[in-house]
Every structure is written in C-alpha cells, then in structure tokens.
Amino acid sequence: RVGVHGAWRPVRRPLLGGGGGPGGVTGRCGGPGRAMALAGPPGGAGWTWRPVARDALLARAFHSCTELRGRFYVVGGLPGGGASEPSGDTVLFDPAAGQAVRGAGDGPRRSHHDAAPVGGRWLCVVGGWDGSRRLATVAALDAERGAWEAWSAAPGSRPPAGLSGHTCTRVSDRELRVAGREGGTRTQRRCGSIFTLRLDPGARTYCYKEEGCRTASRSGHCAALLPAPGPRPGHQLLLFGGCSSPEPEVAGHWSLGKIKEEPPAALHLTEQLARLVTKGQGARQGPRGLRHHSCSVVGPFAVLFGGETLTRARDTICNDLYIYDTRKSPPLWFHFPCADRGLKRVGHRTCLWNDQLYLVGGFGEDGRTPSPQVCILDLFI
Asked: What range defines the domain where residue 215 resides?
C-alpha cells in the first residue's frame, strides 16, 4: 500500500478570466486545464500544486505577495517577455472567493523587493529595483484607507546603498530584519550586511541600523524565522540559498520570549508535513546554489520550492520541493523531486492562509513566461 500520495487536483469552480532588471534568470508554464503529474517516486512521498484560480492580473515574477486581513497583496514585479521595467500596480487576491481585483493605484514601481505586514494595517514594501536603480526606501499601503504612503527616513537612519534580491522579515510590529542584496563590484563586499529596520507607523518614518554581524554575500535567497534548536532556546532567522553554499546561515537570534508567539496557523498542514518527511531520507545539507526560490514557514518546518540553480549551465529553473525540519538538533533537510516540467518556477511566491500553502506567479521553464495561476499544495496521506 502506498503510504503518501500527493496530487494537485482541479477545483470545480470557474477559472478566472483575465486578459531584465536585476537578478535576471537564464532559464513554460502549464496552460489552462493542464493535468498535473504526481511528483515523487512510486510508493514514496508524492506532491504537486493544484490550480485553484487563474487571472492575467497575477501573471508576473519577482513580485511580493503578502497575506494581510485575509487577502493576498501582490505588489509590483516583472510582467515577463524580457521586460526590465517593473510594474507599479497592486492586485488583491481573495483566496476564499478565488478572485483577483486591481487595488490601490500609484503604488511603488518595484521588482526584486520584499514586503512585510505591520500592525495588521500596513503593508510595508522595502527596497527593490525601480527600472533604473536599486532603492532602500519604504513605501506603505494603508489597508484601511486603500492608499499608498511614502514614509520618510528618520534622523539618524543609516540605510544600505540600495536593495534588491534581499529579504525583509517581520520581527515585531515595529521591527524588520533586512539581509543580503545584489550589488556590483563596488558594493559586493557589503552585500552580507544585516540591517534592523525600525518603523514608526504613527509618524510614518523608518530608521535603518546596521548590525555588527554579517553573513556570506548573497542575493535571491530566502529567510525563515524558526524555533532555535539546541541549548539556546528561542528563535533564529535563517537565510537559505542565494550563494553557492548549501548551508543555512543565522542572521539573528532572539532568546525565549523575545519574539511574540503567533497562534498556530496551519495545524493540519503541519501534521501532513510531519508525516511526509517520514517517507523521505533526511540529510544534513540542503540544496547548493539555489536562488529566487520561495520559502514559507509552517510550524517547525521551512518549505522551499523552485528557483534557479547556479550548479548547471542549462535547464536551470527548478521544480523541487525541500523541507527543512527543525524539530530535532541538528535540523534535517528532506528533498522531494518532481518530474513535471510544467511546475518549474522562478521568481514566484508562496503564501500561507487558512491551513493551505498557496503558490502565486513566477516565470516558468523558459525564464520569461509568467504564470497567471494560483495553486495550492496538496498532500494526501
């Protein structure tokens, strides 16, 4: 008897109608109604992404996708076809209704940026490429008013030279941790810098402070705030990928009680992932040379998908699923490959909502064609 099966199955709802900057990729997206193949070895652990919606408004890559107030805010990104001019639109996707609508206008024109929810009200977009240069500014969308605001730097702020291909992780409602960035010859030596970004929503200001610690130079990586195993309990911010090393790197550690614990958001999915990894073979090392992949934290797991590998010259766009399990010390990696080339993605995003992991956008196998689909990760035990 097969222990675990994974498949994306079509949802019986109407599909929605719809009509080179930094970090360019070298590397086809599944069309409507395309069957999704089971990923994983026969008799082993399988998985795939199930399409639940399709809208041309969502066809982009190197965007941000952030859950706020039960909706996904999709901001900026590249529309594909080799375009280097990023989009300035904001799209709201309602996962409960499966519908996408265009949101507030006059948003920041950005790609290769990152975003974080603040105070249950604001969506803060940090840095990114505007089509001509890398920025370190902060733009905020007030979800209550549905309007964008340009916040200003507070006195004493010491921002990085410019940010793209970085990560921005929420530590609290007033503090974000910014790590890594792309850079040329002049800035590359400082691309391992770590910054604390303090926010004052009342004053509409922000302030950068460079931390004393540094990491390896990296960009196009992902970050995950996870429970810290071992003798120092608490939380640690881990960086995955964005350089040749397969090892995650710590970009911050907070002792027990310093990080406000959120209520468990995905109990069933966490249980499924725990059962899934029992079907795999754990390893101490993760993927080497992976960038522009996605990462979502689900309980004690970091779930990574897709991206571009730096380890080969051809067929660089990936469709592999990796699970980083922190329940034991040392943590273990579990790799679940996929034979379905239609699932290759780069510059995409994953977002957790209502015990489901969603996949939004990204370029397909050719590295140029953006996917208009929204998918959900299905695991059948």
From this structure: 48-378
